[in-house]
C-alpha cells in the first residue's frame, strides 16, 4: 500500500531518533512491498526559530494530509530559561493536539526481559507486566473554566465531561481490549465526583455492546496502589484526562524502561506517534540518544494502519537488538554501547534478513 | 499530666485493636506518671445498630471534650451489601470529619526492616524510606459544587481553594518539616490548574517565615513517578485533597506494611488518630488482627500532646516486637503467630521494663 507519513522531528534529539525510525519503516516497506512517502515539517523550537510559530499552518496542512504523523520531541532550554519568551515550543504541542483533535493518548507499558533489573519494582512483581493506558486528552479539568476571585484569595477549576466525549474514548478502549486480553479497567472516582459517575454510567451502558470484554471499575486511588502491587493484573486501563496524566506517568516508571516507551495520540483527522521521553537537549547531535521508543512508536503507527505483521517485524527486531546488546549507552552493559545510528542500521538490517 | 481520650472503637476488628492501643497508652502513663481518662463512644455500624446514627451527638460531645480521639475502624458488610440502606457507617466518618473540622490528614510512611521483603519495590530502592504525606481534607473538588445537566448528558465538578485554607494546612506541613529533616515538597499541578497556582503562590509567600525549611515544588504526575523511583528523597509532602488521596494511597503500599501504618487527622477542635486499614470484618472477634497500626496511631496521639519521649517508648516497643517476631499471623514467619491480645500485652510489658 501507499503510506503518507508526516515527519515532525522537532528539537534536541528529535531529528536523530526519528531518522532511525524512518530507517526501520523503510526496511519494513521494502520487505512487505509498501510505498512510503515522507513529508517533513517544522515543529517546536526549531519552528519558532525559523518561522516564529511552534506549529505553523504549513505543518498542520502536512499533518492533515497524512495517514499518520511521526513525531520526535520538542523543547529547548533557551525557551525554558527565558520567562519572558512570548511563544514556547510546548505551545506547538498543545496547538497540534487541538487542531488535529487528538482526543486519546495511548501508552503501552511492556517489560523487556534484559532490562528488568532497572525496574524499581521487585522482579517477581513486574516480570511479564503488559498493559495499555488509554487517557482522554482534550477534556476534563485541564481544559475547564478556571480563574481567581477579584481579591485573588480564591481560585477555582472546573471539570466537565459529556456523554459524547466519554463514549468516543471508551469505544477506542474497548477496541484495544478486544485486540488484546479482552479486559478493560475503567478508572474513576465515582464515589465522589459527578463527572466520574457519568463516566461509569456511560461505560456500564456500553458493556452490552462488547459482551466479549470483561469490564471492571476501580477508584483512582486504588488504581495508583494496584499498579505497584499487581501490575500484571491489568490489560487495558481507560480514564479521564487528569487521572490519566497521573496514572500513565506512574505506570511509565514501573518497568524501568522509561526511555523505551512509545505512545500514540489518536485524533479525529490523523494520529500522532511519538516517544514518551523528551527532547534531551544535552545529548542532541551526539549520536548517543536511544532511538527505541521512537522505533516502537513507528510500530504503533504501522499497527494503526492495520499492518500487523509489519508492526510485529519491528518489535521482533527491537527484542533481538536488546538480546544481542546492540543498544545505546543509557542501557548498555559493560561499556559496550552502540551509537544511535548504529542501532537504527542494525534494526533495519535485522528486519530485512528476518 | 491529665489526658482525656475519647475512645471510638467502631466496627469489625476496631474494638480489639483499640484495646491493645489502650494497654500501650496505660503502660506509658504508668511509666511516665500521667493520668489518662478514657471515655468510650459509639461510631459506625455499631452506632447505627444501637441508636440509629453513625455519629451520634453524644459521641460528638465526647470528642469535643477530649484532648484527642482514638479511633478504630468502621464498616460492616451488612450495609455494603444493602443498596437500600438509608444510613451507612461511612457517613459517620464524614460527619465526624466535618463537625470536628478535621482539615488535615497526616500519614507517616516508614519502613520496618523485618518486613522489607513484603515491599513491591526493590530492597535498595525502599530501604530507609521515611516520609510524611500531609493531605488537605475538607476542600477541593471532593467538596465543590457538582452536578448534571438537565438532559443528563453533561456532568461537572468544581475544585475551589482559598488562601486561608491553603495557609492553614501549609503551616501544619511546615511545622512537621521543622520537626523532621526540614524538607517540604509541595505537590500541585501549577502548570495547568488555577487552584494549584494559588497553592504554589501561597507556599512561596510563606517560605520567608520558615527560612530553615528547604521547599521544593513538584507536579503531581511527577510525584507519582518519583515516589516509586526514589521514595527516600522525600521528607514531608503536602498537597490538596484529591492529589493527596491518590499520593497517600500510592505511598502506603511501597513499604509493604500497609497493615502497620497509622494516621492522624488534625482538627480545629481536636484530632483523631486511627490506623489506615479498615474494619476487616472477616477477622472480627477472632483475636488475630494486627494491632500495630493502631498502636502507632497512639504514638502519634502522644506526640500531638508533645509527649515525645512517651511516643518514642511506644515506637521502640513496636520495633522490638517486630525484631522478636512477636507479631500477628498476617506478618508472622514460619507459622509463629501471636494473638492480637498477646501482642498488646507484650508491648505494654516491654514499655514498662524498658
Ligand atoms: Mg504527565
Ligand atoms: Mg483513598
Automatic annotation (TrEMBL), chains A, B:
<feature type="site" description="Important for catalysis">
    <location>
        <position position="142"/>
    </location>
</feature>
<keyword id="KW-0963">Cytoplasm</keyword>
<feature type="binding site">
    <location>
        <position position="97"/>
    </location>
    <ligand>
        <name>substrate</name>
    </ligand>
</feature>
<comment type="similarity">
    <text>Belongs to the isocitrate and isopropylmalate dehydrogenases family. LeuB type 1 subfamily.</text>
</comment>
<keyword id="KW-0520">NAD</keyword>
<feature type="binding site">
    <location>
        <position position="107"/>
    </location>
    <ligand>
        <name>substrate</name>
    </ligand>
</feature>
<protein>
    <recommendedName>
        <fullName>3-isopropylmalate dehydrogenase</fullName>
        <ecNumber>1.1.1.85</ecNumber>
    </recommendedName>
</protein>
<dbReference type="Pfam" id="PF00180">
    <property type="entry name" value="Iso_dh"/>
</dbReference>
<feature type="domain" description="Isopropylmalate dehydrogenase-like">
    <location>
        <begin position="4"/>
        <end position="347"/>
    </location>
</feature>
<keyword id="KW-0432">Leucine biosynthesis</keyword>
<comment type="pathway">
    <text>Amino-acid biosynthesis; L-leucine biosynthesis; L-leucine from 3-methyl-2-oxobutanoate: step 3/4.</text>
</comment>
<feature type="site" description="Important for catalysis">
    <location>
        <position position="189"/>
    </location>
</feature>
<dbReference type="InterPro" id="IPR004429">
    <property type="entry name" value="Isopropylmalate_DH"/>
</dbReference>
<dbReference type="InterPro" id="IPR024084">
    <property type="entry name" value="IsoPropMal-DH-like_dom"/>
</dbReference>
<feature type="binding site">
    <location>
        <position position="249"/>
    </location>
    <ligand>
        <name>Mg(2+)</name>
    </ligand>
</feature>
<keyword id="KW-0479">Metal-binding</keyword>
<keyword id="KW-0464">Manganese</keyword>
<feature type="binding site">
    <location>
        <position position="135"/>
    </location>
    <ligand>
        <name>substrate</name>
    </ligand>
</feature>
<dbReference type="InterPro" id="IPR019818">
    <property type="entry name" value="IsoCit/isopropylmalate_DH_CS"/>
</dbReference>
<feature type="binding site">
    <location>
        <position position="221"/>
    </location>
    <ligand>
        <name>Mg(2+)</name>
    </ligand>
</feature>
<keyword id="KW-0560">Oxidoreductase</keyword>
<keyword id="KW-0100">Branched-chain amino acid biosynthesis</keyword>
<feature type="binding site">
    <location>
        <position position="245"/>
    </location>
    <ligand>
        <name>Mg(2+)</name>
    </ligand>
</feature>
<keyword id="KW-0460">Magnesium</keyword>
<comment type="function">
    <text>Catalyzes the oxidation of 3-carboxy-2-hydroxy-4-methylpentanoate (3-isopropylmalate) to 3-carboxy-4-methyl-2-oxopentanoate. The product decarboxylates to 4-methyl-2 oxopentanoate.</text>
</comment>
<feature type="binding site">
    <location>
        <position position="221"/>
    </location>
    <ligand>
        <name>substrate</name>
    </ligand>
</feature>
<comment type="subunit">
    <text>Homodimer.</text>
</comment>
<dbReference type="GO" id="GO:0003862">
    <property type="term" value="F:3-isopropylmalate dehydrogenase activity"/>
</dbReference>
<keyword id="KW-0028">Amino-acid biosynthesis</keyword>
